[in-house]
Design a protein that fits this description.
Largest sheet: 3 strands, antiparallel
CATH architecture of the largest domain: 3-Layer(bab) Sandwich
Number of strands: 3
CATH superfamily of the largest domain: Iron/manganese superoxide dismutase, C-terminal domain
Radius of gyration: 16 Å
Distance between the termini: 28 Å
Strand order of the largest sheet: 2-1-3
CATH topology of the largest domain: minor pseudopilin epsh fold
Strand content: 5-15%
Structural class: mainly alpha
Helix content: 40-55%
CATH class of the largest domain: Alpha Beta
Shape: globular
Order of helices and strands: HHHHHEEEHHH
Length: about 200
């Protein structure tokens, strides 16, 4: 069963002025679509055409140095779908619900979460992602290179921010830290993060 490119969960211009319609159109219609298409081309030759994409990501991970093309494209197809859902118009700011309580208990405070998350973005050398994950029952902020997904290391992703240049360069140029701050303040879909936490517990 082929993995399908999902529609964006909002209009191309819905995240403006924080992320432009042009960025979303290129990012979703070109970059994400290519990862999905390439994954669907590679999976049958590996005998994994009918495997859930999460299983493919875990099974093909060989370490961050050289995970291979099937892993890279599977992870990028999944990562982007997850990333779109981690944002919403009018999002960001202080969370509510269970995730708010868990951030306070595991990380210390929302401000501490924000500081860790925004520092992890410019701290990621080259391309990759910043994540809020559940690791052995506790929340952690972490980052990963290229396509690497924390599920390959036994963690549960709850939130991600794409820090590949195509995610932000048209809007922020080299100001990755500004993009990260804007993401936290104005874009995070905390309702979705709460759903991921509930599903993981």
């Amino acid at each position: 069963m082929a993995y399908e490119l999902p529609n964006l969960p909002y209009a191309y211009n819905a995240l403006e002025p924080h992320i432009s319609a042009q960025t979303l159109a290129f990012h979703h219609d070109k970059h994400h679509a290519k990862y999905v298409n390439t994954f669907n081309q590679l999976a049958p030759d590996a005998g994994m055409a009918d495997n859930p994409i999460e299983e493919v990501i875990k099974a093909t991970y060989q370490g961050s140095a050289n995970p291979g093309p099937l892993h890279n494209n599977a992870a990028q197809a999944w990562n982007h779908t997850f990333y779109w859902n981690c944002m919403k118009p009018g999002g960001g700011g202080i969370p509510t619900g269970t995730i708010a309580e868990k951030i306070n208990s595991d990380i210390g405070s929302y401000q501490e979460f924000k500081e860790q998350f925004t520092k992890a973005a410019p701290g990621q050398f080259g391309s990759g992602y910043v994540w809020l994950v559940l690791n052995n029952g506790r929340l952690e902020v972490t980052n990963s290179p290229n396509a690497v997904n924390p599920m390959s290391m036994g963690m549960t992703p709850l939130l991600t921010m794409d820090v590949w240049e195509h995610a932000y360069y048209l809007d922020y140029q080299n100001a990755r830290a500004k993009y990260a701050e804007t993401f936290v303040d104005n874009l995070i879909n905390w309702d979705y993060v709460n759903q991921q936490l509930a599903a993981a517990q």
